[in-house]
Design goal:
This protein has 2 domains: 108 residues, Urease, subunit C, domain 1; 290 residues, Metal-dependent hydrolases (TIM Barrel, Alpha-Beta Barrel), CATH 3.20.20. Helix content is 36%, strand content 21%. The protein is built from 15 helices and 15 strands. The longest helix is centred in the middle third of the chain and has 19 residues. The structure holds N-(iminomethyl)-L-glutamic acid and fe (iii) ion (FE). N-(iminomethyl)-L-glutamic acid binds next to helix 3.
């Protein structure tokens, strides 16, 4: 039994019993902060919070740890709803190729990119993949991430996709934080199917999805809908096959081009559409008529030097925004959500509050864990971050690259 009281908190952020499950429009800018506050946790569950002046104290002090948070902020850990954390090795060679002038698309056409990762993953053992993922996940938890989604998609064969998903299943059991698994077999066409794309789609639908369903290996299904990858029509068939066995659709859309994937994913009831570096009027209209979340991945734009998503236009249109790391070896080799927070403020022109909501409340929604994570509410179980003493809340995204965490509960 562990009891913790954090007292004299300068600002207790995102704490309240009536915070919406999904924020959009002007509501994204409002963030509850209780000044001079306390927070009580019992066995990692929120049991009480409020203003110091209202604190009743506790009857039984035995075994209670008291933490004095003088000058510091306390808030819910971030949820990272879009990552590719399981992979075999980093791809810094392609990074150098890009510096020397090649584009991400040119590197992929040469057999680099996702196919490069798939080649490397095919010879890695499940234990090797698990061990390297543990090293990364330990680091990202220490960096403030309290819930994680992980995609397959570096397998691209029945054996390797299942190997990845079984590794993710082991990771779910290994960690106390929620981990959600997304089946992304449709991440790229493997070399063997270059001239037979339909053959690979058949493999996904008839050989991968049935096993994933029987073994309970995924929560979501995702497709990379893009020029030279999967067409809108191919995406629709694959998402539908997943949906038919209970996998909730998500989609990688509009990273480089607008093909109509947003509308198609929304029509299939997608929980989120991710990337959206490019955005058209039709995309806005279809998102407006749904609860689908627009997930922006500014680290990918930063790292590849492509357009940043148009957060202001999405907020203006009352479309809920989520921010995620897209942590992967090719387009975003960084999992630090404090850095994503800074990028969102600097490059997407989101206010510190809007970006924070996008990394907590809306991110929890995009992972289907809104009832337990993303805010501080009685009974909630997510991790809690205590900062170092800092001058103000806005200092957190302002001091980009700095780790302001003092402790994680
Ligand atoms: O989300 N866009 C497609 N997939 C990943 C990148 C994968 C890679 O380059 O390895 C993304 O950016
Ligand atoms: Fe991605």
């Amino acid at each position: 039994m562990s009891k913790i009281i954090i007292k004299n908190i300068k600002g207790l952020v995102q704490a309240g019993e009536n915070i919406s499950l999904l924020l959009r429009g002007a509501d994204m800018a409002s963030l509850p902060i209780i000044e001079d506050a306390y927070l009580a946790l019992e066995n990692n569950v929120v049991i009480d919070y409020g203003k110091m002046e209202d604190w009743q104290g506790i009857a039984d002090w035995r075994g209670v740890e008291v933490v004095d948070a003088e000058g510091a902020y306390v808030f819910p850990a971030f949820c990272d709803s879009h990552t590719h954390t399981v992979f075999s090795s980093f791809r810094e060679g392609e990074f150098v190729d890009r510096i020397q002038g090649l584009t991400y698309e040119e590197i992929a056409l040469k057999g680099g990119g996702i196919l490069n990762s798939a080649q490397k993953l095919s010879t890695a053992t499940a234990n090797e993949l698990f061990d390297s993922a543990v090293q990364r996940i330990d680091k990202l938890i220490a960096g403030g991430t309290g819930a994680l989604e992980i995609k397959s998609g570096y397998g691209l064969s029945v054996d390797s996709e299942l190997k990845m998903l079984r590794v993710i299943k082991r990771l779910k059991q290994h960690y106390q934080i929620p981990i959600k698994a997304t089946f992304l077999g449709a991440h790229a066409f493997p070399k063997e199917y270059k001239n037979n794309p339909e053959g690979y789609i058949d493999t996904i639908i008839n050989e991968m999805i049935p096993v994933i369903s029987t073994e309970g290996l995924a929560d979501f299904i995702d497709v990379f809908c893009e020029r030279n990858y999967f067409s809108v029509e191919q995406m629709q068939r694959i998402l539908l096959a997943g949906k038919n066995v209970g996998l909730e659709p998500k989609a990688h859309v509009n990273q480089f081009s607008i093909l109509g994937g947003v509308k198609a994913a929304v029509d299939l009831g997608a929980l989120s559409v991710d990337h959206l570096e490019e955005l058209g009027e039709e995309d806005i209209l279809s998102l407006q008529s749904s609860n689908c979340i627009a997930t922006l991945l500014p680290a990918c734009s930063f790292f590849l030097g492509i357009s940043f998503g148009d957060a202001r236009r999405l907020i203006q249109a009352e479309i809920p925004i989520c921010l995620a790391s897209d942590y992967n070896p090719g387009s975003a080799p960084n999992h630090n959500l404090f850095f994503i927070w800074s990028l969102a403020c600097i490059k997407l022109k989101m206010t510190p509050e809007e970006a924070f909501n996008a990394l907590t409340v809306n991110a929890a929604y995009a992972m289907g864990i809104s009832e337990t994570h993303g805010k501080i509410k009685i009974g909630y179980t997510g991790k809690i971050i205590l900062t170092n003493p800092i001058p103000s809340f806005a200092y957190l995204p302002y001091s980009f690259g700095e780790n302001n965490i003092s402790r994680i509960f």
